[in-house]
Specification:
With 130 residues, the protein is mainly alpha-helical. It has 2 domains: 64 residues, lambda repressor-like DNA-binding domains (434 Repressor (Amino-terminal Domain), Orthogonal Bundle); 45 residues. Helix content is 68%, strand content 0%. The protein has 7 helices and no strands. Helix 1 crosses helix 5. The protein is elongated, with a radius of gyration of 24 Å. It starts with 9 loop residues before the first helix and ends with a helix. The model has no long low-confidence stretch (mean pLDDT 87).
């Protein structure tokens, strides 16, 4: 027998199944506690369509999964990436090289001006304390 096709929300399905098993919860119980029908529950594993926010939040709320994490697992929102602004600009395909250069120089000037302002505030605070 062939392997089942993985759906868009397969990662969420895995997390739900892990938590459901840990709580010894049947799919009938899952349907009752989430208010979702069995077709929706069974489709989470293999559906090519993204589940609605209502469906994702029903699972998240039942199992204590943060909603934003559940949305990410379900493929509703892209995964959060820890990327600084310079990397985001440099790796962007939206901006031309000239635009990237300008944006990066604006950021550099802003950071320098902020650092100077912080120094001034710090110096003024020290002088006031004397």
């Amino acid at each position: 027998m062939g392997e089942r096709r993985r759906g868009v929300a397969y990662r969420l399905w895995l997390e739900v199944e892990k938590r459901r098993a840990a709580q010894q919860m049947s799919k009938v119980d899952l349907a009752k506690f989430t208010g979702l029908n069995r077709t929706t529950i069974d489709g989470l594993e293999t559906s090519r369509r993204r589940p609605s926010s209502r469906v994702v939040h029903a699972y998240a709320d039942l199992f204590g999964i943060p909603r934003d994490e559940a949305e990410e697992l379900a493929g509703i929102v892209p995964p959060q990436q820890d990327m600084d602004v310079r990397s985001a600009i440099s790796e962007s395909t939206v901006y031309t090289d000239a635009q990237k250069k300008i944006l990066l120089s604006v950021i550099e000037e802003f950071e320098q001006a902020s650092a100077q302002r912080i120094e001034q505030v710090f110096e003024n605070t020290e002088e006031s304390a004397r």
